[in-house]
């Protein structure tokens, strides 16, 4: 499983009945605190302002109740060790205004990539507006957005953060070393510093605090949980991992190959490529059987390598074929190790389609049916199609953030230093140190980039003694990387977030 995963880090949903002009939240007069962007008069050159903000006032109906809030869109500086501004991070902060602020939870939201903006969960999952998509998450026109009736803004204030080179975030000059930002541990360090600044500036030290990250954002927030404790003495109540990466937990070649099978099985079940024996079962009744086979038979078999006798090898390949929908001969030819790319190309090859990486419900069409990998990621192109217009429309027209800088849905973060990734262990350590800290993991069964069974495996390895089990939850969904794109899953997953926040608010002193 790759440690750097393009996240979509991600979301879609169309409120029933909205297909033409999208309804938009009611907005009160704009308060301009500072110019969002300055341009040189008569020049095409842009001047980046790393410390600027615009405030607007709105309301939204969540779970049938009206919620009023203010939205602050702007940039806030990143400083180096000498107090010199080296970057400005773009953020969008939503604060409910019809209830007391004191003691109200704060959720700090990151997406992934690395190199992906916060757009995906912002306008697709937890924020007060949703982009226009159909009920399964596919693009629709006209582009636009509407109210999010399932936003978590009723129970927590939210800030969406764009790391350097994503969204409108930028370093202040070419002389600032990329190594300050672009790497597992550099990313964690500067973002922890920035969070300290944000919490101080907006008077949130008294708030219960939560981090939510998606895809590579899960690596980010797992590391931040410990960094915030150790370097800033900021202790969290909860961390939410949406479609987590491997969190730096080593698999090895054999283990990595074996752990893919449950995802293959879920996808083959969805596309009806299995025998009637399995299709007659509900997905969540079928998958435990595959998981047991994976851990108890497939994993030991692949580890044996050439020591596995031919009869056992054929028996394992036959069962893998039955669970994955792939030809037995193909599995044998690949020594029981089927790459994700080959699976995405092969499963629907006879029908002339490929399947998506981040969400294998999506189909693609290649130039030729031959080959061992798809030409493109069908799901990602659909998501970029759906998300990019509305986020530009919303930030500019609704939140009044005016700039000629492009909003980088994906931005360059090359070269990225992926060394010394111990973020899974960092999260375990943070939880062990802080009895208040709880963990929620959400995964889509059809996610082939950050698959659900690898997420389960990470939790088992992260907590080998089982002593943290009472504070860890895992939840699965019948969708992909951005499970909240399905209308049905959006309601369920935001409900889980709401319950997680409420249940992790402390009732007693932090002690074992």
Automatic annotation (TrEMBL):
Cleavable signal peptide: 1-20
Example of a GO biological process term: proteolysis
Superkingdom field: Bacteria
GO molecular function: serine-type carboxypeptidase activity
Region (Disordered): 23-49
Keyword vocabulary terms for this entry: Carboxypeptidase, Glycoprotein, Hydrolase, Protease, Signal
Keyword Magnesium found: no
Ranges of compositional bias, category Basic and acidic residues: 28-40
Keyword Cell inner membrane tagged: no
One Pfam family here: Peptidase_S10
Coiled coil spans: none
PANTHER family found in the cross-reference section: RETINOID-INDUCIBLE SERINE CARBOXYPEPTIDASE (PTHR11802:SF3), SERINE PROTEASE FAMILY S10 SERINE CARBOXYPEPTIDASE (PTHR11802)
Protein name as annotated: Carboxypeptidase
